[in-house]
């Protein structure tokens, strides 16, 4: 898809979303004439690219369900149009966050006011360079901060993945799948070296909910009490979460395969005391040790408040 074609597509989608958001009923024939495209193209926009929207069809016209009108800002509309327009280039991009944003059927104590998106700002050129490298199967070289110092990386880029509004590069580095936060990538270059995409790696990207990916995933089992259970039934709050058993008291046993403990530990800490790690025991011990350290009285050398 050329840049000009892509820009035209994004403009069309954005205009259609604005109309829907304002409560207009869209006639596919009129849209085709307005944008100078075929009726089939417009029908594809409405039925495929906007599949995540709560649209109603009446007498051949499409409109947003009344309960969802006015939920988008102009900036949201532009971003959603861009994502929908390039969806085919990003097979790993999940539209769950879009569905969640429009799903107001169930009110709860958790109020979702919208999705925060990473602002690419002046880094659009680097983003497009990564798109080009992925499409042409060319290696990339860049600097990336590590625990010790800045790391020089030569990698095979496979996908740009958007998780909860943040962009990551999923790439093969030294024979292993790794993920890099796009915002931290510096001095990006595309090399002349070509590579063959790894089909098994791409399958793993399709199946994985998060960005922590590993060749040796950790199997985690958690006990969720009845107070927190409704939230874990409604949404996957932990990557790759599966409800294994519903308990008589209203609680849950859930399981997940994760690539890194950080996919689980922050969630457990947030939901304490309603969650407990059943296995592996080492993760539950880490939680308990962290709590014990937090509850220790401050040392005599610590500054007093005020």
List the helices and strands and how they pair.
Elements: H1 3-21, H2 28-35, H3 39-49, E1 55-58, E2 61-64, H4 74-85, H5 96-102, H6 124-136, E3 138-145, E4 150-163, E5 166-173, E6 176-181, E7 186-194, H7 199-207, E8 218-224, H8 229-234, E9 242-246, E10 252-258, H9 265-271, E11 275-279, H10 281-295
Antiparallel strand pairs: 1-2, 3-4, 3-7, 4-5, 5-6, 8-10, 8-11, 9-10
Helix pairs in contact: 1-4, 2-3
Written account of the structure:
By secondary structure, the chain is α+β, with helices and mostly antiparallel strands. Helices cover 35% and strands 25% of the residues. It has ten helices and eleven strands. The protein has helices spanning 3-21, 28-35, 39-49, 74-85, 96-102, 124-136, 199-207, 229-234, 265-271, 281-295; strands at 55-58, 61-64, 138-145, 150-163, 166-173, 176-181, 186-194, 218-224, 242-246, 252-258, 275-279. The strands form three sheets. A five-stranded antiparallel β-sheet has the order 6-5-4-3-7. Strands 9-10-8-11 form a four-stranded antiparallel β-sheet. The chain has a two-stranded antiparallel ribbon with strand order 1-2. Helix 2 (28-35) packs across helix 3. It is globular and about 70 Å long. The termini are far apart.
Can you describe this structure in just a few lines?
This protein has 306 residues and is α+β, with helices and mostly antiparallel strands. Helices cover 35% and strands 25% of the residues. It folds into three domains: 3-90, Arc Repressor Mutant, subunit A; 121-198, SH3 type barrels (Roll); 218-294, Alpha-Beta Plaits.
């Amino acid at each position: 898809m050329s840049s000009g074609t892509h820009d035209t597509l994004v403009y069309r989608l954005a205009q259609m979303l604005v109309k829907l958001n304002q409560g207009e009923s869209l006639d596919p024939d009129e849209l085709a004439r307005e944008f100078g495209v075929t009726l089939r193209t417009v029908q594809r926009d409405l039925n495929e690219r906007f599949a995540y929207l709560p649209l109603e069809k009446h007498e051949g016209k499409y409109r947003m369900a009344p309960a969802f009108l006015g939920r988008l800002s102009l900036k949201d509309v532009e971003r959603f149009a861009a994502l929908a327009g390039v969806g085919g280039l990003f097979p790993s991009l999940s539209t769950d966050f879009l569905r969640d944003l429009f799903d107001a059927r169930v009110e709860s104590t958790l109020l979702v006011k919208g999705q925060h998106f990473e602002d690419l700002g002046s880094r659009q050129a680097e983003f497009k360079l990564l798109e080009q490298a992925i499409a042409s199967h060319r290696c990339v070289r860049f600097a990336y901060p590590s625990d010790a110092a800045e790391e020089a990386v030569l990698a095979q880029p496979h996908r740009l993945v958007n998780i909860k509004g943040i962009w990551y590069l999923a790439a093969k580095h030294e024979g292993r799948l790794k993920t890099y936060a796009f915002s931290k990538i510096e001095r990006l270059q595309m090399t002349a070296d070509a590579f063959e995409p790894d089909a098994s790696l791409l399958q793993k990207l399709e199946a994985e909910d998060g960005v922590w990916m590993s060749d040796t995933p950790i199997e985690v089992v958690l006990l969720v009490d009845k107070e927190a259970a409704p939230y874990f039934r409604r949404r996957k709050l932990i990557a790759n979460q599966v409800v294994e058993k519903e308990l008589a008291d209203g609680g849950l046993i859930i399981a997940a395969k994760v690539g890194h403990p950080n996919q689980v530990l922050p969630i457990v800490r947030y939901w304490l005391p309603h969650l407990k790690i059943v296995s592996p025991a080492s993760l539950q011990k880490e939680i308990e040790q962290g709590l014990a350290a937090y509850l220790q009285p401050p040392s005599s050398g610590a500054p007093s408040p005020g």
